[in-house]
Specification:
Length: about 220
């Protein structure tokens, strides 16, 4: 089984000690740092924005994987790139001109991602699969950390993997929400490449060990 890319979600970290949390991730086996941006409109919660992303980037030695849970992401993509994003994912459900959104992200030199909600069918991505570097399959309804993993995600990973292989594309599959030690192995078996984990990492007593366990699941 291939080792997954591990992207701990900073949303579950201790915001009063953000520098310390980022330094912990620098020393860990984490590959990327997942940054959840919520606007209170696309999702019923507000997280943080560009200045906090810049502050994280100032200390991070790992690429920032920015997940935009916002309406009109095209208005903010460049600002997040300038703040330090290495990859930027927009939501399918927020993008009537998805192909244009993906080109905008790629033109900046970032990896382009599309996140899809649990009810959104993976087949809707078929026509743009070659333009997508990362599909972020939401395994919870976006807006909050600490939710229960939705079991149907395994089917979606398998279906999406088939689409990617059939198209001869190199798109990576990212799983976001409720990831833990019990589902990580099954997700990788099903075809996942990237695992995002928030609460499971940051609420554990030894986050660095928890990250290593996920990496070597
Ligand atoms: O995008 C989201 C939620 O909307 C995720 O990135 C969560 O923040 C992951 O947290 P856990 O479910 O692992 O606690
Ligand atoms: Fe996320």
């Amino acid at each position: 089984m291939n080792k997954p890319i591990i992207a701990p979600s900073i949303l579950a970290s201790d915001f009063a000690n953000l520098q310390r949390e980022v330094e912990m991730l620098n020393e860990s086996e984490a590959d990327w740092i997942h940054i959840d941006i919520m606007d209170g409109i696309f999702v019923p919660n507000i997280s943080f924005g560009i200045p906090v992303t810049e502050a994280i980037a100032a200390h991070a030695k790992k690429p920032l994987d920015v997940h935009l849970m916002i309406e009109k992401p095209e208005n903010y993509v460049e600002a997040f790139y300038k703040a330090g994003a290495a990859s930027i994912s927009v939501h399918y459900e927020a993008c009537p001109h998805l192909h244009r959104n993906l080109q905008q992200i790629k033109d900046l030199g970032c990896r382009a991602g599309v996140a899809i909600n649990p009810h959104t069918n993976v087949q809707l991505l078929e026509d743009v699969i070659h333009d997508i570097d990362i599909v972020c399959l939401m395994s919870v309804n976006p807006g909050f950390g600490g939710q229960k993993f939705i079991e149907n995600t395994y089917n979606k990973v398998r279906q999406l993997k088939e689409i990617i292989v059939d198209a001869g594309a190199s798109t990576m599959i990212e799983i976001d929400g409720g990831v833990n030690q019990s589902n990580a192995g099954h997700l990788i078996e099903a075809g996942a490449d990237i695992l995002v984990a928030g609460s499971f990492v940051f609420k554990s007593s030894e986050p660095k060990d928890t990250i290593a366990d996920l990496k070597n699941v």
